[in-house]
Write a structure and sequence with these properties.
This protein is an alpha+beta fold and about 230 residues long. About 25% of the residues lie in helices and about 20% in strands. It is built from four helices and six strands. The strands form two sheets. Strands 3-6-4-5 form a four-stranded mixed β-sheet. Strands 1-2 form a two-stranded antiparallel ribbon. The longest helix has 21 residues.
């Protein structure tokens, strides 16, 4: 009887050695079927290919089992994706580096406004011994005013002239009245009065020959010079 007990104990010890395995997490719980490898497996398995386990969750190994035959859940841990089994351990893949943000586009330099000098000139003509603008003179001033819309006006200079008929003193006063007539007209077009300067030259600066009627008509005039700046983007 004692001999039989000794044999049973020895058999149990041998079986326990063959069937040793981990059953605690991360190894498979008892309720989980562990599939044997195919076509060969170093574990005892049933007809379904499921590895046999004892009541303690230990997988039954065959006598030719080696560590190379370890199956996850029996003698190797069960790894949860994305972990991978490497050298008997679950190893998480290295973190994927976030792609470097795309470089911000180079800022586009805003146009730098600059100023450029602008000047316009025009002539307004008058009848003999008159300081009243003729229709053609008004049209010339209208055209000049339209050009001032995009201009930073600095000054308008109106210089009056006469022909040679009459005394110097009289013609000097007449030339000033003609320049003032131009100033009054431009003021009526919305131009600041303080921007308009007037001057009279009398008969001292003819632009044509006073010996002919045509020349004298050209000399009865007001020369208008406009000076200012315009802002441009470069």
């Amino acid at each position: 009887m004692k001999k039989l007990i000794t044999v049973l104990l020895a058999a149990s010890a041998a079986i326990a050695g063959v069937a040793s395995a981990q059953s605690a997490p991360p190894y498979a719980p008892l309720t989980t079927d562990i599939q044997a490898r195919t076509p060969y497996s170093a574990y005892v398995q049933d007809a379904r290919g499921v590895i046999a386990r004892n009541p303690f969750g230990l997988c039954w190994r065959t006598g030719y089992w080696t560590p190379a035959d370890a199956v996850p859940g029996c003698d190797a841990p069960l790894c949860v994706e994305p972990e991978k089994l490497e050298n008997g351990k679950c190893v998480a893949p290295p973190p994927v580096a976030a792609p470097a943000p795309a470089p911000a586009p180079a800022p586009v330099a805003a146009p730098v406004p600059t100023s450029e000098k602008v000047s316009y000139s025009a002539d307004a003509f008058f009848d003999f011994d008159k300081a009243i603008l003729k229709p053609a003179g008004k049209a010339s001033l209208d055209e000049l005013s339209a050009k001032l819309g995009d201009m930073n006006l600095e000054v308008i200079i109106a210089v009056g002239h006469t022909d040679s008929i009459g005394t110097d003193a009289y013609n000097q006063k007449l030339s000033i009245r003609r320049a003032e007539a131009v100033k009054a007209y431009l003021k009526g077009k919305g131009i600041e009065e303080t921007r308009i300067y007037t001057e009279g030259k009398g008969e001292s600066q003819p632009k044509a020959d006073n010996k002919t009627a045509e020349g004298r008509a050209q000399n009865r005039r007001v020369e208008i010079e406009v000076v200012g700046t315009r802002t441009v983007n470069k």
